[in-house]
Design a protein that fits this description.
Radius of gyration of chain A: 13 Å
Number of helices of chain A: 0
Shape of chain B: globular
Distance between the termini of chain A: 37 Å
Largest interface: A-B, 25 and 26 residues
Largest sheet of chain B: 5 strands, mixed
Distance between the termini of chain B: 37 Å
Radius of gyration of chain B: 13 Å
Structural class of chain A: mainly beta
Number of helices of chain B: 0
Order of helices and strands of chain A: EEEEEEEEEEE
Number of strands of chain B: 9
Oligomer: heterodimer
């Protein structure tokens, strides 16, 4: 498997500010990481696929200019929520696949964002 | 992706087996069935997956019907810490869907003393 860690675990910010969330693969070199989000009382939805050394691939309906993803190394991907608004308040979770099986992912602990 | 259907919620007594059903009647021949669980305010945790044979690991057993239209996740001796939302997922096989898990609403399993 893979051990995935996120930071921060929770963050509160003011509307209009930007917030960066880090996702680290601690024991596996991940060329690909996946960012999901989960609104209260809803299920997880894939936002984007983060690719090391190249641009992220965003799911339909996810604004790439609002959710900036950087995957500069094999162990770190960052998600920056720019000009955050209260509707961006959500649980953001990253995951790593080790490639041995397409559906087996290892998730981080999640980062809860609250925008005031 | 194969559509899956699960009961909204289930209860189980601590120490007893928890049997969580999932219908996936539209699953194709090369699609695996995956099970994850999510404990409150945590990231999902992979449990098990299978294609057509029954599978067992240290966490659970997965029983898949011969026609592959349904499966059952079995937690043999449920504990209070097994209280979570359990997701049955049937992603498409192949690299184009790698990592793209479609989470439904899952089954809220409550294990009580």
């Amino acid at each position: 498997g893979a051990v995935v860690s996120q930071h921060p675990s929770w963050v509160i910010c003011k509307s209009g500010t930007s917030v960066k969330i880090e996702c680290r693969s601690l024991d596996f070199q991940a060329t690909t990481m996946f960012w999901y989000r989960q609104f209260p009382k809803q299920s997880l939805m894939l936002m984007a696929t983060s690719n090391e050394g190249s641009k992220a691939t965003y799911e339909q309906g996810v604004e790439k200019d609002k959710f900036l993803i950087n995957h500069a190394s094999l162990t770190l991907s960052t998600l920056t929520v720019t000009s955050a608004h209260p509707e961006d308040s959500s649980f953001y979770i990253c995951s790593v696949g080790t490639g041995t099986n397409t559906g087996e992912l290892f998730f981080g602990e999640g980062s809860r964002l609250t925008v005031l | 992706d194969a559509k899956t259907t699960q009961p909204t919620s289930m209860d189980c007594a601590e120490g007893r087996a928890a049997n969580l059903p999932c219908n996936h009647s539209t699953i194709s021949g090369n699609e695996y069935v995956y099970w994850y669980r999510q404990i409150h305010s945590q990231g999902p945790q992979y449990i098990i997956h299978g294609l057509k044979n029954n599978e067992t690991n240290e966490m659970a057993s997965l029983i898949i019907t011969e026609d592959r239209k349904s499966s059952t996740l079995i937690l043999p001796h449920a504990t209070l810490r097994d209280t979570a939302v359990y997701y049955c997922i049937g992603p498409s096989a192949g690299g184009t869907s790698y990592g793209k898990l479609t989470f439904g609403q899952g089954t809220i399993l409550t294990v009580h003393p």
